[in-house]
Every structure is written in structure tokens, then in C-alpha cells.
Amino acid sequence: MGSSAGFRRRPRRGSLQYWHRKKANRETPRIRVWNRISDVKLLGFAGYKAGMTHINFVDNRQKSPTKGEEIRVPVTILETPSINIFNIRLYSSDAYGKKVMAESFADNLDLKLAKRLDLPKKRANPEKLAELLSKASEVRVLAYTNPSETAIAKKKPDIMELAIGGDDVNAQFEYAKSILGTEVQIEDIFSSSESIDVHAVTKGKGFQGSIKRFGVSILHRKAHSDGRRKVATLGNWMAKTWRVPHPGQMGYHNRTESSKQILKIANAEESPITPKGGFVKYGEVKGKYALIAGSLPGPKKRLIRLTFAKRAHSGAFPAIESIEASTITQQR
């Protein structure tokens, strides 16, 4: 790591913000905390990353130095096919956290769900769950995506749990019953110019050394003939903490990026976004999509989950009337 004087001349190697640098257990990202809103509706959605481009529009931010001028903003195209709700769950809370009290499946389950889970032979009636509402603290639903509607060569749906807004458990349950067994579109939850948080599993890079993983300096050629791409000394033989640069897993981590903004929600049939030849390593965006300002974690075809933002975006754009997607960057 270097002498004590080295710490005064440069920052430490590696970020202490991300711990631990563990490979994600599954490709569907985990959401630990949901941002609560007063409206009784789903608190999240999901889509598949297609690629990036940039858009041209007139800056309408009141305090922006470029107000009234045409600007270019890089955006990520997220294809957002509908999701299907197939399960209702009741949760109870105690000193040890939340536990599932009971659940009920929809009547007509899609057979492609059998690729992901064992379909129940006996299905509880949602009306029987109403008897347990007095003991429940929260109602959530299970949903699955439809990747077959996209350009991804994938048949297995991705299953996820979604929380419901509002504070009244009875209102949450009535809403969950109304959408059980139905399709939900992205415009039912989010709208253009909405601030969101995105959750995804980053691009995996496998087992890497300390030089690439932590950015430590390559050792001098003359003094270290036994190897240069390593840390010269890590101290004594005692076990080292996670703060010390070691080789290990790099990438494929659960990550959350806060305060992104949806600039546009559209349908590819009415407003095409695919460049000539399709997006590289993805293909053609066929259905509904969302343009999200900036970049998103993960490679192309990766599942991206969207939730309502915890913090307001100070530099967010108001509703944009006319957006023109650039055809220059689309043809990369």
C-alpha cells in the first residue's frame, strides 16, 4: 500500500463505498428499500438495456446557462415490454423483520413460468387472504417479464417482487386484486420527466488482479524482478481486511444509481428508435421503450429495474415537448 507519506501525496487505492465486492447471486437485481409514495400503485418496473444514443432538444431549465438553446444529452434506450402480475403476498412484521404470511396465485398461469418455478397445483383464493389483513403489515405482488416480446433470444421470464404504494393495507390489497392476472405497462407507473433510481447487475469481468481491480501502481522494473503487477508488501502474515488490494471478483455486482430521469416513453411502432442494422449486440427495439438520461449499469440485454427516486434530481428537465433522436450516434 506504500508508506505513510504516500497517503499524504495521493488518495487511497480503491473505493470504500462498495463492499463487499461479491458476485451477484442472480441477474435480477435486488431492491432492499422502496421509496414510499402516497399513490396506491406499483413502485417499480423493469426493462432490458438496448444501447445508447443522444438526443437533441431545447433546454427548458429555468436556471440553466444554456436555457433556450438546443443541447445534446446522452441517453440509454431501455426496452420495456409489459409485465404480468401472477401472485399476491401478505407480509407480517415482528422484531426479526418481515415474513410472508400467505400468498395467492392467479388462476390462469402462463406455462412459461414453469421454466422458473414449480407451479402450484392448489391455488388459494384471494378472498381468503382478506381474513388475514388485520395481521398484515404490507401487501406485495410477484411479477414476471416478457423477454420474448423483445429482440433478446430468451424465453425464460425474469421474476421479481414489487411493492405497492400507500399506507393503507386494505387499499393495497384491493389494488393487488384488481391487477392480479393482468398485464401492466410502464406508463401505468411512470411518466415522462419522472425521476427514478435504477438497479442492475454490472458487467462481469471475472477474476482480476489487484492492478486492474484497485488501480495500484505497477512496480518498478529493476527492483521487482519476481513480478510487477502486484502490491509490493501487504504487511505481516496476519489476515488482511477487505480494504487492502487483493485479487478477486470484479464486476457482476448489484449496483444502484440514484436520481436518473426518464426523458421520454414511446412506442417503436409510432416513433422508431432503432438505427440501421439494429443495435449492436441487441437487435431491433420492437415495442415500448424509455429514454433515460445518462448511462445505466450493466451490458446490453441486461435486466434493469426502475423505482421512484429517493432524492429529487436538482438538474432535472421539465416535460420536454419535442425530442429528436440523433441518427449519427445510432449507427455505431
Name its key features:
332 residues; mainly beta; Elongation Factor Tu (Ef-tu), domain 3; Ribosomal Protein L3, Chain: B, domain 2; 6-stranded antiparallel β-barrel; 5-stranded antiparallel β-sheet; 4 helices; 30% strand; globular; disordered C terminus
Order of helices and strands: HEEEEHEEHEEEHEEEEE
The major pleated sheet works out as:
6 strands, antiparallel, barrel
CATH class of the largest domain: Mainly Beta
Largest sheet, spatial ordering of strands = 1-2-12-11-8-13
List low-confidence stretches: 327-332
- State the end-to-end distance: 41 Å
The quaternary organization reads as single chain
- The CATH superfamily label of the largest domain reads Translation factors
Tell me the β content: 25-35%
| Counted beta strands | 14
Mean pLDDT: 90
Number of helices: 4
Describe this structure in words.
This protein has helices at residues 4-9, 126-129, 169-179, 210-214; strands at residues 44-58, 70-79, 83-94, 97-105, 138-144, 159-163, 183-184, 195-201, 207-208, 248-249, 254-267, 288-293, 303-308, 324-325. It has 332 residues and is mostly beta strands. It is globular, with a radius of gyration of 24 Å.
What's the layout of helices and strands?
Elements (H helix, E strand, L loop, with lengths): L3 H6 L34 E15 L11 E10 L3 E12 L2 E9 L20 H4 L8 E7 L14 E5 L5 H11 L3 E2 L10 E7 L5 E2 L1 H5 L33 E2 L4 E14 L20 E6 L9 E6 L15 E2 L7
Antiparallel strand pairs: 1-2, 1-13, 1-14, 2-12, 3-4, 3-5, 3-7, 5-6, 8-11, 8-13, 9-10, 11-12
